[in-house]
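Feature request, filed as a ticket because there's no other form

It would be nice if the structure record came with a short human-readable summary line next to the tokens. Right now we just get the raw output. Example of a typical job, pasted below so the devs can see what we mean:
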Amino acid sequence: MSTGTQRRTRSQRVATVELPPGPFGVLLLRLQSGYVLFRLALCALAAVMLWAMTRGWSPPQPHHVDQIPLRAIVSRVPFEQIDEAATAKAQDDAAKNAVAIYDQDPAPLVQLKARILNDELSQMIKAPALDDVAPEMWQMYTAPLAEGTPPPTEEERQQQFQRFREALTAEGAFEKFTTAMNEVFAPLEQNGILDALPPEHDANFESIAVRLRGSTGFPTIVRVSEVLREHVVNQLQKALEAKAPSLDVATRVFARLNPDLRPTLQLNLPATREAQTEARNAVPTVKTLIPPGTILAPAGQPIGDSQLAQIELEHKTDLGSRGWLQKLARSAAVLGMYAALYTLCGFYISSREPRIINQLPRFLMLLAAVLATTALVLLTYGQQWRAELVPLLLFGMSVAIAYQQELALLLATAVTLIAVVALGHPLGFALILMATTAGAILALDSVRSRSKLLLVGFAAGLVAFLTTLGVGTLEGYPFWSTFWLGAKLALWSLIAGSLMTCLLPLVERLFNVQTDLSLNELGDPAHPLLQELVRRAPGTYNHSITVASLAEAAAESIGARGLLVRVGAYFHDIGKMLKPGYFAENQAKGDNRHESLLPAMSTLVIIAHVKDGADLARQNKLPEAMIDFIQQHHGTTLVEFFYRQATDRKNGDKSQPEVDETSFRYPGPKPQTKEAGVMMIADAVESASRALVEPTPARLESLVEGICRKRLLDGQFDECGLTLSEVSKIGDSLVKSLTAIYHGRVKYPGQETA
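Raw output as currently delivered:
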């Protein structure tokens, strides 16, 4: 009878056999996941930001002062260097050639002219004879007699006065003379008079700039020779002789003017200095062309300040001459290095710390820390200070605190390589940075006191000092130069340790971790939640203290964080304080509130302490690690006592509804860490051990073994990473601890069994 199916050939049967994909196949499948692609996109974005921050398209200038190059540093391109001496000489010459500014005050000349025309000449014109004129006035209009010439007689003096008066009283003569005087005084009033250049005049000696006092307009440029008094007096005499009504009038008026012609120009020193400064600034810098192939620093000698300036100028010129193809090639190389570092760190994190990749906030925080550290390294970099070590140390210590030392070493090395490439540090200094950071990370095993981070800074400083001395000796640097660099780096290491002490609470909050220091503070019995637990549920508090002691020893037996488990045990049952009477450790003898409740209702009351505890923890701002212990210490285990009660009721009364096992299980989640797994076993063992009538070592061992086996078979440890070997070690530790608690005691005479 045919079954309706066709017999398959051997090749068809072989084709149906599919082997699991290999490593590359698994990698390809993962790359097709949107979850993975999103994180790769974040890594690519971070790489581009690093490329932009570090100017990945242009190489840095790798040399610094006191560096001893193994080979001579030669210019690759022609470049221009400012000739400081020639530029300074050109600026000094420009300042000396600048035109000095003088202020002209024409008031004395105007007053002198008015006094002569309106007062003195008017009086003499009106006087009919010489006797009607003051003798001293006529004397001012009398020119000095030549040596050996006899003084004029009285009659001659009268005749001279009449000729002078008649020349001015002729029709229109005085008006013409007034016009002539205005014309003669006009250049004097505009340009002024100067006896000689003052000593502080250090500008142009041929010309000066004259402006009216108080004026802000443009000055008039005049030659110095034209305003000197000797020249002015000669020009004045010639002008009077040419324009006066007679030679006698010209001679006598000149004799009157000559004594009162005083300097009217004054050097304006601030304005002159400003003009000289402007002249200096207007001088273009004098540059010298340095041809390619010029030795900028010889081999085997420390680089000096002037040599470094030439090297930096040549490097800047070389960067400016680079084409886009060269920039593209370097950008590709830098991004390729970033990709290699991301790949290396990514594979390590995915195998050792997968929670960083699985939890997006942790992943983003780590990327942000890398970017921030790189930015701080670039900002703090300086040839003199060498403060870029501080951000690297802070980053390495933060990752060591948040995760583990191995990951911190890997990530700190990667960030150090990025910084070294970006800043152009030589191999020797890169080794110093890596060794110092590694020393700080290796010394940071745990933070149990505030002085720990200071000791870590001291250890890192010692590593920095010794490594600097070693590298400096190998590379042939001068001893004192190396010594001071090592001392400087050691000081920065101590400063980084001090800063980390202040930043520790921020690091714990950002990375959601708790150091031993914060755990010790959190586990203080005076904590308000623990005090409230003592008051409301003393039995639960004693149970928590016992579980803490058992779990701490068990966690340390497998290398887990015993302190974290101990503090977590203090808070794991705080939810019971809301309904303490429903839990056996808080009930008096014969007072069992569950007797009046259905098994399902009793289960709901028991299970509720997990949710209540988590809500209390969040309300009191306990760390997430404590909340995890509260939620995971029962996992998804079965509330066996009430489940059996419900099953027995169903078996005795068939009309009862079917018992759903899932409604008698805790909501979970299952333990996610080894510490939470240890807590689960210790909590169950401590509760069960109280029910033993005679807790002998054999019975305790059987109890612990049974509970561990039951949790294993129930799959409660599937997500926390506990191995069978570790579960066995946990059991052995619990047996030892319980045996110590329930050890036998000697019966004294008259003592009766309770």
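Something like this underneath would help us a lot:
The chain has 31 helices and eight strands.
The chain has a mean pLDDT of 87.
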